[in-house]
Amino acid sequence: MKKAGFPVAPFDFALEGVTSISADTHKYGYASKGTSVLVYKNKMYRRAQFFCLSDWPGGIYATPTLAGSRAGGLIAACWASMMAVGEDGYIEWTRKIITTSRKLQAELRKIDAIKVLGHPEVSVVAIGSDTFAIYRLWNALNDRGYNLNMLQFPSSFHICVTQHWTQEGAVERLISIIKECVMEIMKDPKKEVDGVAALYGAAQAIPDRSLVKEVTDGFLEACYSTSSMPLDNGYLAPAKT
User: Fold this and answer.
1) Measured in Å, how far apart are the chain's first and last C-alpha atoms?
2) Predicted pLDDT of residue 226
């Protein structure tokens, strides 16, 4: 950020309380998905992640992470991607992305009935509203091909500005569509949200968050389910859920 001309408040090891930093290299590192980096302030913290079984009958078993055996192909691909882009490339992409993010924020603030949450310093811009159910705008944009991330507490959704958004006309096109959608929504601002967004909003309204966790845990358990039922022909088929 600083090298790209956008100074930000300290957030790294310059702060006394920061002892580790993680980064998903498949995001702004532009590497293949499935790689990430964890950096520690000193070796003392890194030692805590090691696992070693010294009295295993099969010999000494030690692994530096929770994962045991894993392929090195993704790591090699990540390294190749980062070397190909290089520091100069990342600085230039940062400059374009942050410039685009600031432009997007400025244009969004001009639209009545919606608001930008906070004052984003980097590349994630969240949008909310005090006038209508903001998930209605999310639905409208989703119908037009924009796959954006819904947020809760408060109800909102965000736009993650990446290289794609730096293309000529990309932000202008989005702003134009948002204006059209807001105008349509404001014809009936009190209308309730429907569709997938309604389910998301309903989950947010549940006061006991432990219930949400239980339902989520149940869903994940179902993903791992190997339950099966016998058929008349003697073969097994997955149980209907």
Assistant:
1) 49
2) 78
Look at strands 156-160 and 51-53 and give their pairing: unpaired
- The model's pLDDT over 172-200, given as tens digits with 9 standing for 90+, comes to 999 999 999 999 999 999 999 887 777 76
The pLDDT of residue 181 is 97
Distance of alpha carbon 16 from alpha carbon 54, whole angstroms: 35
HEC assignment per residue over the chain? CCCCCCCCCCCCCCCCCCCEEEECCCCCCCCCCCCCEEEECCHHHHHCCCEEECCCCCCCEEECCCCCCCCCHHHHHHHHHHHHHHHHHHHHHHHHHHHHHHHHHHHHCCCCCCEECCCCCCCEEEEECCCCCHHHHHHHHHHCCCCCEEECCCCEEEEECCHHHHCCCHHHHHHHHHHHHHHHHCCCCCCCCCCHHHHHHHHHHCCCHHHHHHHHHHHHHHHHCCCEEECCCCCEEECCC
Contacts of 47 (CB under 8 A, 6+ apart): none
Q: Which of 38, 36, 47 is nearest to 20 (CA)?
A: 38
Ranges of the chain with pLDDT below 50:
none
Strand partners, 127: 116, 157
Q: In sequence order, what are the beta bridge partners of 62?
A: 52
- For the chain, what's the residue count? 241
Token pair 């001009």 in the structure block, residue: 110
| Backbone phi, psi, residue 157, to 5° | -145, 160
